[in-house]
Amino acid sequence: MRAVVLLSLFIHARSEWQSVIGLEIHAQIQSRSKLFSRAGTSYGASTNSQVSHFDAALPGTLPVLNRRCVEAGVLTALALGCDINMVSKFDRKHYFYADLPAGYQITQQRQPLAVNGQVTYVYQCSRTSRVERRSARLIQLQLEQDSGKSLHDSEQRLSLIDLNRAGVGLMEIVTAPDFCGGDDAASFVRDLRDVLVSIGTCDGKMAEGSLRVDANISVNRPGEEFGVRTEVKNLNSVKSMRAAINYEIERQIQILDTGGTVVNETRSFDLDTGETVAMRDKEKVLDYRFMPEPNLPPLVLYSQRESVPLSLPSSQRPNVVVLEEVQGQMKELPEDRRKRLETRYGVSLINSVILVRAELDELFETLVTSHGCDPGSASHVVRNNYNAFLDERKLTWRDSPIETSVLAEIVRLYHEGKVSGSAVSVLLSEKTLDGQLSVSEVIERHNLWMLRDTSVIEAAVTDVFSRNPKMIKAYKKGKVNQLDVLAAKVMKKLEGKADSRLVLTMVSERLKD
Amino acid sequence: MGSLTIKQAIHQMRKGLLSVEELCKKCQDILKKTRVLNMYVNETDPEQLSKNLQASSQAYAQEAAKCLEGIPVSFKDAFCTSDMPTTCGSKMLLNYTPPYDATMVTRTQENGAIVIGKTNMDEFAMGSGSLDGCHGPVMNPWNFAVLPAADRHVQGANNVSEDTLSVEPGDWFISGGSSGGSAAAVASGSCLASFGSDTGGSTRLPASFCGVVGLKPTYGLLSRHGLIPLVNSMDAPGIITKTVEDCSIVLNAVAGHDVMDSTTVVESYKPFEIQEDIDLSKLHIGIPKEYHGPGLSGEVLRLWQDTADNLEKAGARVTQVSMPHTQLCITCYHVLCCCEVASNMARYDGIEFGLREGSEESTEELYAASRHQGFNDVVRSRILAGNFFLLKRNYEKFFLKAQRVRRLISNDFKNVFRSGVDVLLTPISLTDAPRYRWFANQDNHTRCEEQDVLSTPANMAGVPAISIPLSLSSQGLPLSLQLIGPHFSESSLLTVAGWLEREAQFPYLNLDALGLNEEALRR
């Protein structure tokens, strides 16, 4: 009884708070060499094997800006709807840390590469099927160096340092506090990741640290000012991001509800316990003592090739970054692709999200435009069957053993009701195994044709009903969800080869008896 | 032979009148006899040296000699060298040998020069006396010329010490700094050219005290890659030679864009030769009145006036000009210098390289102990001040304000050159070389503020400036003046300097006879 009271109090209290989240996303730039040196950037190279003199901060070394990294930054900024600063500058941010060899990080604090972005993303609720478009503002996008890695061997009481990552180019993307929860922020990051991957400026591999998120979280009562925020650092999966943010929101609400105050601090997230914990070393408020980086001239961009001044020697002209040329490398962005699927083919928002994220939208369009497939059936087959088929085999549709024309034939058969949805999955696997056989031969051999004979279905329904009298009783007492359960059992008995809608109708008819 | 210039040496070696080995041997002899001066902190390994000499000899034999072929040169110990330690005058780097060569080192070697060693300096180039390095102070080679003659001739040069120079301890003359080792090395004749660095006058000031030519080129004309920085936004590799013409030869060999230094000029560098017959009537010399400040000695003032008069007599237009922000320079320099020092020194933490001291149980303690023991008081106090200036609450008040003042100082130069002035003629030091005892009775900070007054403005503005020895003081020590020109005006700047040099006929120090026995003298 007591637990119930507490729970209801909690729910009551929770509704009085709103949470506000802003993100700092560190995306490693996909480039062969580092931001300011020629050292390589491959992930997983042996320890300290990708370290130039500059990366180790040897005295007398100087930074040399990597043009590829600038282009990637500009391309990303354009893709995220930012205003590009035609002149941006580099700053030094000072702090002592063993894996920061120079004692400062070169970043762009005062005049970043780009500001004021706007990103449309698709919010997906993890608990319900709610899906909707939302928009978030970006404050800035800046280029900066990654740090090295410290490894602590507590047994031998040693700290080991790997500088392979030190100096790798990062794009730091800072958002406005525009998110309201874990799902919201996670949806944004997934979409942002899709953008970066599709334009080739970041490989998006969160598990390898290519994309890391810091979340600033606070709660406040509606209509009041933002609360004291905490920063949860280094979230390196969408899952932990969602969990960390939700945990932190609840933690702050509980503190405030019990009369406490939230401390402005940096926290880390422990995936095993699902909790955030205050970070020991970084509690002190640091003064980063920012200073302009004197060894790098301002980064000047040009809008067009013609606007490059003639005074620049011809040897240097190829080294400048021209917006028009970078824009030329732009790929169609995920949001535009989703929009096209929706408007041109009537695909639902969630299906367009899935198709685009799985890079199957082009295949879908080919099926519809070149092979005359029905858009509804094509999106259904590609999204539900073919996506899983490729995923299991770790293939893209371009190197799939199923030719597009074959897939189109399968979509047509599905559309005409000749094979069921679940039969399509079997068909794809079997066709792969028996490559020489035609689609209909495979269907024949494995007996995958849709059941047309209603007496067979009737018999299956009878069988299932006789085995589950309790469920029928429950249904009649008002548990209407038993309908779906019974229909599923009938489908299973028929090995999925019946039209699921027909089965549902027949079960519900029988339940009226 | 020690009195040879690069120009003469190259000429003689081309003609076969002098061998690469002979020239180097001569320099080495002087080097050995002047060890008391404490000019060098490291010397090239003899085996490596003889290999390099051989290569140069061969180049002459095959008539493939390059512009500095076989010329013995030295580098301030702030330039990274892969075959010798590079200490920057600090305990922090006492055992540090860089894995790469500075661009200046590479370019001189590519042009045939023979690097014979690394020269002494103030720790991390912070100082104007060459007294505050971990290798001890540098003595001015002119001590040999101005001390009682009797003592000099009876002493064997190999064991010259302060005592044998027949002075009271501390009564000797300093070389000036921070590139004191380099200026003294050229003045002594132990090498024909040396690279110093010049952040606030560190090349020109010792060059002036030691009676040699010291050039601070336009910021960005010479690569800083491999030069351990003091203030990145003002540092310039400095060239020290006996004559102006030699200076141009070295400059031509090393100037121009370097991909490793993004602040170097991208326009291609055009080598030049010093013109001897120049039409002074087309020249407008500016005399900035603000350089006539407190502490300027009567002798220097007279030299300044006489030189201006001579130029005028020879047809040049000489006018007084005003550069109103000159007095703000030292304070402004101090703030900017400390800020960059605080930042640049952050890398010396005992982790990747350099001195490591203290407990390895705690990273913070390791940092603290390494940095406390590795840096001297001067470096530590500048780091402290710099970090203070850079604090968020102070940034605007100190760093930004200093940057604005720097802009004003820079504009002073812009305005005066835009008004038609070609070159500015100013003093470079307040006096001739001071005595150690006098110099050391004030701290480093006080002496820098006092000594750098005439030299820092050119660093603030990034314009080229050259110090040229023109006469001797009543004590028999060199007196020099400074010429400052607009950005990238090295060609005309050195041409005017060359004219002054020819007019002055400065009596260069010649230590050829120093402590030589009769046999050596006959040869």
UniProtKB/TrEMBL annotation, chain A:
Residues 1-15 form the signal peptide. SUPFAM superfamilies: GatB/YqeY motif, Glutamine synthetase/guanido kinase. It catalyses: L-glutamyl-tRNA(Gln) + L-glutamine + ATP + H2O = L-glutaminyl-tRNA(Gln) + L-glutamate + ADP + phosphate + H(+). Keywords: ATP-binding, Ligase, Mitochondrion, Nucleotide-binding, Protein biosynthesis, Signal. It is an enzyme of class 6 (ligase). Residues 362-511 form the Asn/Gln amidotransferase domain. It is found in: Mitochondrion. Its EC number is 6.3.5.-. PROSITE patterns: GATB. Its main location: mitochondrion. InterPro entries: Asn/Gln-tRNA_amidoTrfase_suB/E (IPR017959), Asn/Gln-tRNA_Trfase_suB/E_cat (IPR006075), Asn/Gln_amidotransferase (IPR018027), Asn/Gln_tRNA_amidoTrase-B-like (IPR003789), GatB (IPR004413), GatB_Yqey_C_2 (IPR023168), Gln-tRNA_amidoTrfase_suB_CS (IPR017958), Gln_synth/guanido_kin_cat_dom (IPR014746). Subunit of the heterotrimeric GatCAB amidotransferase (AdT) complex, composed of A, B and C subunits. Allows the formation of correctly charged Gln-tRNA(Gln) through the transamidation of misacylated Glu-tRNA(Gln) in the mitochondria. The reaction takes place in the presence of glutamine and ATP through an activated gamma-phospho-Glu-tRNA(Gln). Belongs to the GatB/GatE family. GatB subfamily. PANTHER family: GLUTAMYL-TRNA GLN AMIDOTRANSFERASE SUBUNIT B MITOCHONDRIAL AND PROKARYOTIC PET112-RELATED, GLUTAMYL-TRNA(GLN) AMIDOTRANSFERASE SUBUNIT B, MITOCHONDRIAL. This is Glutamyl-tRNA(Gln) amidotransferase subunit B, mitochondrial. It comes from Aplysia californica (California sea hare).
UniProtKB/TrEMBL annotation, chain B:
Signal peptide: none annotated. Keywords: ATP-binding, Ligase, Mitochondrion, Nucleotide-binding, Protein biosynthesis. Residues 20-143, 174-494 form the Amidase domain. It catalyses: L-glutamyl-tRNA(Gln) + L-glutamine + ATP + H2O = L-glutaminyl-tRNA(Gln) + L-glutamate + ADP + phosphate + H(+). Transmembrane segments: none annotated. It is found in: Mitochondrion. It is an enzyme of class 6 (ligase). The active site is at 76 (charge relay system), 178 (charge relay system), 202 (acyl-ester intermediate). Its EC number is 6.3.5.7. Its main location: mitochondrion. Subunit of the heterotrimeric GatCAB amidotransferase (AdT) complex, composed of A, B and C subunits. Belongs to the amidase family. GatA subfamily. Allows the formation of correctly charged Gln-tRNA(Gln) through the transamidation of misacylated Glu-tRNA(Gln) in the mitochondria. The reaction takes place in the presence of glutamine and ATP through an activated gamma-phospho-Glu-tRNA(Gln). PANTHER family: GLUTAMYL-TRNA(GLN) AMIDOTRANSFERASE SUBUNIT A, MITOCHONDRIAL (PTHR11895:SF7), TRANSAMIDASE (PTHR11895). This is Glutamyl-tRNA(Gln) amidotransferase subunit A, mitochondrial. It comes from Aplysia californica.
